[in-house]
Amino acid sequence: MFRSTVWWHAPLAWAVSCGLIFFAGSAWAQDRVPGEIPAKASLEEGLWTEFAKVERNAATSAERISDPALETYLKEVSCRVAPEFCSELRIYVMDRPIFNATAAANGYIEVWSGLMLAASNEAELAFVLGHEISHYISRDSLDAFNRLKSTRMVATVAAFAVGAAGIAAASNQATVGDVQNTLDISRSIAELTYLGIVATYFSFSKEQEMAADLAGQQRLMRAGYDARSGVDIWRAVTEIHDSSDFKATRRRGAVSSVFNTHPINAERIAYLEGIAKSVPEKGDLNQDSYRSKIRPFLKAWLNRTLEMRDYGYTLNLLDRLAKPGTDLGVLQFVRGEVYRKRNQVGDAKLAIQAFQEASKYSEAPVELYRELGGVAASAGERDVAKAAFGKYLELAPQAEDAWLVKETMEAL
Amino acid sequence: MVNWIEKKSFKQGIVIAALALVIAGCASVVAVPPGPYVVSPSMTLNIGRIWTDFSPILPNQPKKVKMLSIDGPLLNRLYVGSDLVAGEGLTKPANKEVRVPTVKAQMSGIEQIEFLKDSMASFDFRNVTTSRPRQVQLSGKPAIRVDLSGSAQDGLEFAATGIMQKNGDTYNVLLFVAPKEHYFGVILSEFNQLAGST
Questions:
Q1: Model-level pTM?
Q2: A408: which chain B residues are within 8 Å (Cβ-Cβ)?
Q3: What is the ipTM score, two decimals?
Q4: Strand bridging mode B30-32 / B43-47
């Protein structure tokens, strides 16, 4: 089985793993073998049936990014980290601007766009996929369900947990707003009860999360990816969340999941760093190829991030995305949009600078001239505004809002 | 004894009166009958069918915004915002950790369309797009109208049409949203009539 064949690179990892196995090993179910299907009339078969419904909802959700090239790419990465389970894994990318990925009991995995934006390269994505696949292999959902049955609310929770509606609410039906609500302690009692139960259902134990981290790390290294990628992605998540405008999101930065049950990131970073340090050779990062895969979605995903109106969070994300020096036309445009929408003292100037910087790149969207014109007009920079509006009309003479832009320009 | 009964009756009367006040104060939906519907001094709508005002029972509903429906909010809903000033929107944030679209002083026509689009997105619709921005009249004054579309989280497609009007430093807003299949088309003529525009 997976855990018994683990080879450890560092004394720290060894100690941590021994501790984990000692602490939680007796509660864990036997690891899955490739191609295994649940026994007839077993609890696991029931869970698979319910998750199949959830998966159908995910497949038809408006939030699913049904792009064959992107889905194939994620499938390829997952097959690289878990080749023996390749044929039974299904990966869905969901357009949700929050860092998260979820593995269901039946082998379907959701990766959210917020995670795709936060990952700098393929190796970081591979670490997360390895982590999630490890939950699947270890049947952690089954353990979570069994743990749930031992809670005080047995009848209510168990009845709820096996209902497709409840499961779906957390993994698919949940909108970004719902997820935020889950984390918001000020919600109504009804919402807390409902989502709280679902969150309880989905929460893996701290030991399961740590084991998944270690298993993900092992799979990462076996697949030839850079050993530091696990450390890097958790560090990135911490930094992005720490830069949030919102206290609850900053607090969430101390945990990895939308549900506050994972070990704190500092702890994860420490033990993964211990493993990574023992591997001197550099592995694959595949930064350029990763960016090329997400490039077609950058603008749309960032626009969704903007809908959260968490400007600190978005700016930090943009800083990270801009590091390789590519896609600056789109990234500077979105940066301009952040300042324009934030609209605090001094933001108009920053927005104008960002839009003007974006205009130097061919991939910049044409609407940047419309927005530059608007913010410059508000800031009293008539010449800049007129030039920008003129450029917009020149580049998009057939735009449906051309008459509005022309009207605004003429009023300057 | 009589005095005690009188006192008891008086106390019961107080309790009953208090209960009646509480019950009378309970929020409930309100019918909006056909005819002129004076939303505010700056906006009157020409209602053709009976609508229901769900605003009194909605949490986080701004005082200046009403939410009307004919068949129920999931099938069609009309947000009516009147005299909105900077910082106000069609919905209120549920808590301090949420920001919602709000109007600001001196919005351009482009920004007004953006406000309508952002407002629809804030009602949990995905991939909201706008089309056909045009000049119309609302309560006899110039306004901007735009059509919108988006998807509910489960994939059901919705259509919408919105009107925004600037009155000095305040704004009047209408945003009608319904499933693209059947409901939007059926109620659109009623919306056009009450708004006095197409």
A1: 0.82
A2: 108-110
A3: 0.84
A4: unpaired
